[in-house]
Amino acid sequence: MKIAVVGATGLVGTKMLQILEERNFPVTELFPVASAKSIGKEITFKGKQYKVVSVEDAIKQRPDVALFSAGGSASLEQAPMFAEVGTTVIDNSSAWRMDPSKKLIVPEVNADVLTANDKIIANPNCSTIQMVVALKPLHDKYKIKRVVVSTYQSVTGTGVKAVDQLFNERKGIEGPMAYPYTIDLNVIPQIDVFTENGYTKEEMKMVKETVKIMGDDSIKVTATTVRIPVMGGHSESVNIEFLNDFDVEEVKELLAKSPGIVVTDDIANLKYPMPLDAHDKDEVFVGRIRRDETQPNTLNCWIVSDNLRKGAATNAVQIAEYLVAKHLIGQVVEA
Ligand code: 2RA
């Protein structure tokens, strides 16, 4: 497979290259793409050196797949250029997620909707991905009515500048600010900009993307997304009201046998998911599973996952793996 990685020098792009290598994705030719200032830089992939190229040069190579993590405006402009030459684009930005003509995919939830005609596929927001992996088996069995989620999101979700701010603050060093406030020893109840309804874009992404991925607009979602000074991954406190009742032990068994999930729930031995444990793993870790005793048919749980891996790079590569396995890449099927 001829693979382009657009945004190859960013946090997620670098992780995409790592995941492609780790999972031994069948790469025969690699085209790392980055901004003009990075062209000519060398990156190492599978022990070989590759020069960063321009998006124009990558398009000329007609790659089979282009993994994008280069921001929304670059994706809006460049993804169609790749698609026109037959490339399948898997884009990690928010640019195409709510476009009704584009599919928003988490393989454990809805990969089966993909066809060879899908040339631009959207990778959901990291905080949405980890939640829907856990919601899917529960919705199938108990039918979800409403989800209330509060997130505790790693600074890696913002990018290098935020990670630098955290560690500069920790060392007492003045430096560029990714956030309007100090992040060390603090939490910031704002991720992305505010919208006219008083929510942030991040919160509305969780609301809208969840419904699209689950394929059920009867699911009500409300979210509060919060930035916290950690590195290993995003954590989420999730309250789920079902149409039908459930047994807590049955819920734990159901989650434990569902794809992509590890249940870490042994409070007698203080075992529950934490970002330090989820870091550099691809699973979605679920724990603190318990009944909400204040209303019927309602569950509380705690969901943790590495936001750069399953929340971004691994999910994108898993979409590509699915397309390869189903022979949906490289063919152009007339509508
Ligand atoms: C964040 N989910 O954590 C957003 C984008 N990665 O900042």
UniProtKB/TrEMBL annotation:
Phosphate binds at residue 97. Residues 2-117 form the Semialdehyde dehydrogenase NAD-binding domain. It catalyses: L-aspartate 4-semialdehyde + phosphate + NADP(+) = 4-phospho-L-aspartate + NADPH + H(+). GO terms for biological process: 'de novo' L-methionine biosynthetic process; diaminopimelate biosynthetic process; isoleucine biosynthetic process; lysine biosynthetic process via diaminopimelate; threonine biosynthetic process. It comes from the Bacteria. Substrate binds at residues 153, 227. The keyword Amino-acid biosynthesis applies. Pathway: Amino-acid biosynthesis; L-lysine biosynthesis via DAP pathway; (S)-tetrahydrodipicolinate from L-aspartate: step 2/4; Amino-acid biosynthesis; L-threonine biosynthesis; L-threonine from L-aspartate: step 2/5; Amino-acid biosynthesis; L-methionine biosynthesis via de novo pathway; L-homoserine from L-aspartate: step 2/3. The active site is at residues 126, 234. Keywords: Amino-acid biosynthesis, Diaminopimelate biosynthesis, Lysine biosynthesis, Methionine biosynthesis, NADP, Oxidoreductase, Threonine biosynthesis. GO terms for molecular function: aspartate-semialdehyde dehydrogenase activity; NAD binding; NADP binding; protein dimerization activity. NADP(+) binds at residues 9-12, 37-38, 176, 307. Gene3D superfamilies: Dihydrodipicolinate Reductase, domain 2 (3.30.360.10), NAD(P)-binding Rossmann-like Domain (3.40.50.720). Its EC number is 1.2.1.11. PANTHER family: ASPARTATE-SEMIALDEHYDE DEHYDROGENASE, DEHYDROGENASE, PUTATIVE-RELATED. Belongs to the aspartate-semialdehyde dehydrogenase family. Homodimer. Catalyzes the NADPH-dependent formation of L-aspartate-semialdehyde (L-ASA) by the reductive dephosphorylation of L-aspartyl-4-phosphate. This is Aspartate-semialdehyde dehydrogenase. It comes from Mucilaginibacter psychrotolerans.
